[in-house]
Design brief:
This protein is of the alpha/beta class and about 475 residues long. The protein is about 45% helix and about 15% strand. Helix 18 links the parallel strand 13 and strand 14. Helix 9 crosses helix 11 and helix 9 runs parallel beside helix 12. The N and C termini lie far apart (about 60 Å). The mean pLDDT is about 95. The structure holds uridine-5'-diphosphate-xylopyranose and adenosine-5'-diphosphate.
């Protein structure tokens, strides 16, 4: 089967970059990204490329080259579904906030709505590709909805999990470690659908990096990859606390263990805690699935990765409070960074949110500076927690777009995101403008301890005793 038209439902952090790269690498395919959120589509179509809704290094250039040539952004979902032979679903799948599985299971209502819309509109056979992170066996549910509500049209469901990391999405898409495609490998139609998607990727990815599996292996591999990565971060974060107590340096420990080729050097950077839209959600999914099969030891094992992460965030804020003489009430505390990692404007599950919430509980005056995150996003993140009235959040926390202004007359600075620009600041100037003693808490192990202590900062670096 030769794919000429692709539709992607969901113009977010996954759909946007993925489709932009497919459009660039496959000029013979027309790619249409649709979304129910009109303002998001308008932003993707904005002439000023600085206004794209997703910030990713290299993305705006690809959008500039492909937009309105073979890459289109639209709110006309029905038309795009009708035209496409292959439909990617990359809508959000947040953790359920209500009912059974609340706080753990993935909320599949957006996926289900998509499936029903595809079933309603489709007049010809379609290949439907799951791109969102989904619990195992979602493909089965999708197939059931499509087969039972459609007009007799045949659907093939593929699982094609996304392994891109935000901040490096374009590079990850252009040079993936592997592309995973799960499908119905036992039927001829299933294999044809798998091959159609293999052919799309084969335009720029070598064949040996494209793995094809049964659909459930593919779905479970995504959760497993994220659980393993998150586990490494929680493992090194657990060691960071022990290093602080014993006088060791977690960066030295990371380097030493990372040189063991069996362990490897990546994902061993101690931090204030992992964030992002995937790690926590996927592990909670895994825990929920294990529990629902009665595998309580398996569930508890993986849940500990999340509990360690919560502890890491809490101990960072606890340390700020205890260092500032056990009270931060009315004190100004400056956050450098709000995004869950550098080079993205995404803030989902960012450690900064929890650390801020804890400090606001202590009545601190938090001032936030982040080079890419908007003021309204920061307030929305806090409001989502529902800890206190919105006006109280707005009274206690303010957002600055000049880092020097944010640090002026502050009692303490906390580095929550590892943005490169923080390393280049005039730290002497910042020190001179601060209240003394000038406390600096580096939650990302980003800054140079020796030079900052020389300036006069009371400096804390995560994992360094
Ligand atoms: C992750 C997976 O890497 C990706 O394959 C999947 O498709 C989606 O989830 P992402 O959440 O974008 O990607 O970012 P990632 O680079 O994995 O970082 C996740 C969190 O872990 C960030 O908050 C990051 O700061 C933190 N982290 C990562 C550490 O604290 N230390 C590390 O050594 C690595
Ligand atoms: P991700 O990180 O998984 O890409 P995002 O939240 O960034 O998640 O993007 C998901 C997008 O999917 C949002 O822009 C949202 O408006 C869109 N979306 C959700 N449900 C539907 C739907 N039924 N039809 C079209 N778009 C949808």
């Amino acid at each position: 089967m030769n794919i000429k038209n692709i539709c992607c439902i969901g113009a977010g952090y996954v759909g946007g970059p993925t489709m932009a790269v497919i459009a660039q690498e496959c000029p013979h395919i027309k790619v249409t990204i649709v979304d129910i959120n009109e303002s998001r589509i308008d932003a993707w179509n904005d002439e000023n490329l600085n206004n794209l809704p997703v910030f990713e290094p290299g993305l705006s250039q690809i959008v500039q080259e492909t937009r309105d040539k073979n890459l289109f952004f639209s709110t006309d979902i029905d038309k795009a579904i009708d035209e496409a032979e292959m439909i990617f679903i990359s809508v959000n799948t947040p953790t359920k906030t209500y009912g059974k599985g609340k706080g753990m299971a993935a909320d599949l209502k957006y996926i289900e709505l998509c499936a029903r819309q595809i079933a309603k509109v489709a007049k010809q056979d379609k290949i439907v590709v799951e791109k969102s992170t989904l619990p195992v066996r979602t493909a089965e549910a999708l197939k059931s909805i499509l087969d039972n509500t459609g007009n007799g049209v045949q659907f093939q469901i593929l699982s094609n999990p996304e392994f891109l990391a935000e901040g490096t999405a374009v590079q990850d898409l252009l040079n993936p470690d592997r592309v995973l495609i799960g499908g119905d490998i036992d039927s001829e139609e299933g294999n044809e659908a798998i091959q159609a998607l293999v052919d799309v990727y084969a335009n720029w990815v070598s064949q040996e990096k494209i793995l094809t599996t049964k659909v459930w292996s593919s779905e479970l591999s995504k959760l497993t990859a994220n659980a393993f990565l998150a586990q490494r971060v929680s493992s090194i974060n657990a060691m960071s606390e022990l290093c602080e107590k014993t006088g060791a340096d977690v960066n030295e420990v990371s380097k030493a263990i990372g040189m063991d080729t069996r362990i490897g050097s990546k994902f061993l950077k101690a931090s204030v805690g992992f964030g992002g839209s995937c790690f926590q959600k996927d592990i909670l999914n895994l825990v929920y699935i294990a529990q629902s099969y009665g595998l309580s030891e398996v569930a508890d094992y993986w849940e500990q990765v999340i509990l360690m992460n919560e502890h890491q965030k809490n101990r960072f804020s606890d340390n700020i409070v205890s260092t500032l003489y056990n009270t931060v009430s009315g004190k100004k505390i400056t956050f450098l960074g709000w995004a869950f990692k550098k080079d993205t404007n995404d803030t989902r599950e960012s450690a900064a949110i929890k650390v801020a919430d804890n400090l606001l509980n202590e009545q601190a005056n938090v001032v936030v500076y982040d080079p890419k995150v908007s003021k309204e996003r920061i307030y929305a993140d806090l409001e989502y927690l529902n800890t206190r009235f919105s006006e109280v959040n707005r009274n206690l926390l303010s957002v600055e777009n000049d880092p020097y202004k944010a640090c002026k007359e502050t009692h303490a600075i906390a580095v929550l995101t590892e943005w490169d620009e923080f390393k280049k600041y005039d730290w002497q100037k910042i020190y001179d403008s601060m209240n003394k003693p000038a406390f600096l808490f580096d939650g990302r192990g980003l800054l140079d301890k020796e030079s900052l202590e020389k300036i006069g900062f009371v400096f804390y670096k995560i994992g360094v005793g």
